[in-house]
Write a structure and sequence with these properties.
mainly alpha, elongated, 59% helix, CFA69, 15 helices
Length: 289
């Protein structure tokens, strides 16, 4: 029995079109071009490339350009490793100073998260800093103050969201910044400007923050500050900041530890002299009025 051949139609190819939001212009805002921080860190620290200064500065400037709107949370630890390397190099090679300051300025901006879970995933990040250069201490102080005083970001990002101010402050509390700043005060006896700047930062750090107060006390903040609270200062800000910080430590820190640190002849005499000075000023003001 003959069969009739039925003509077959040519198969229609199935094409999977993948159209992203970027292709149709749905997403608006700044696009962060990610850079491999590990490669930059290796370039700076590898014995075979440690003296390739031009390549170092090119890589650092590239980082600054790409992350000028904020650092990704996932890159925060590596970013501070690079900042610390620059700090070590800046003492002998001043060209590292400028990129380091720029990176610190970027750290004053809200950190960026790629997923809503990033704040939880990276909540245990601990950032460590160790700076000795005067200009870097000032920049670090300005960066910290910006985190405490910054307004909500109005910038829009295509693939990231800025973290809240509260989250950024919590990251500061987990770092060793408060402890480091307290320890650095002893190196600033001859530099009143920087000392007052750091005291202002410590006042912010100790306000309403038990973790910061505990870390400050671990560096003997109460005794260090009380013993030098009457150092010469025409503006009177040193004494004012010292008193405010001590009150913050008493209110938010371990009171027994504060008492222990202040229980020395040097601190008690300093507190007595400060009290006498304040009472004298009040008396003179009342007489003048």
């Amino acid at each position: 029995m003959a069969t009739e051949d039925v003509p077959t139609k040519p198969a229609v190819p199935v094409v999977g079109h993948v159209i992203t939001d970027d292709d149709i212009g749905v997403k608006q805002g700044i696009k962060i071009q990610a850079i491999n921080f590990n490669k930059v860190f290796k370039l700076l620290t590898d014995p075979h490339s440690t003296t390739l200064y031009d390549r170092h500065f090119h890589a650092l400037q590239r980082l600054i350009r790409h992350y000028k709107s904020g650092l990704l949370l996932k890159d925060l630890v590596q970013a501070f490793k690079i900042i610390n390397v620059c700090a070590d190099r800046a003492a002998s090679h001043s060209d590292y100073l400028q990129p380091m300051q720029e990176l610190l300025k970027i750290c004053s901006l809200p950190f960026l998260k790629e997923k809503s879970s990033d704040e939880t995933v990276y909540s245990q990040i601990v950032v460590r800093v160790h700076f000795t250069i005067r200009d870097i201490k000032l920049e670090l102080a300005n960066t910290i103050l910006s985190i405490y005083t910054q307004k909500p970001s109005s910038q829009k990002f295509k693939d990231q969201l800025p973290c809240s101010q509260a989250y950024n402050i919590s990251m500061l509390e987990k770092s060793d910044v408060a402890e480091t700043l307290v320890k650095s005060l002893s190196l600033l006896e001859q530099d009143l400007e920087v000392k007052l700047c750091l005291m202002n930062v410590l006042q912010h750090l100790s306000s309403f923050s038990k973790p910061n107060c505990d870390k400050m006390l671990s560096a003997d903040a109460a005794s260090r500050i009380a013993s030098r609270m009457n150092d010469p200062d025409p503006s009177g800000r040193l004494l004012f900041r010292s008193i405010e910080i001590l009150w913050n430590l008493i209110e938010n820190g371990n009171r027994e530890e504060v008492s222990r640190q202040l229980n020395s002849l040097v601190c008690l005499n300093a507190l007595k002299d400060a009290f006498s000075e304040r009472m004298t000023q009040v008396t003179v003001t009342m007489i003048d009025n």
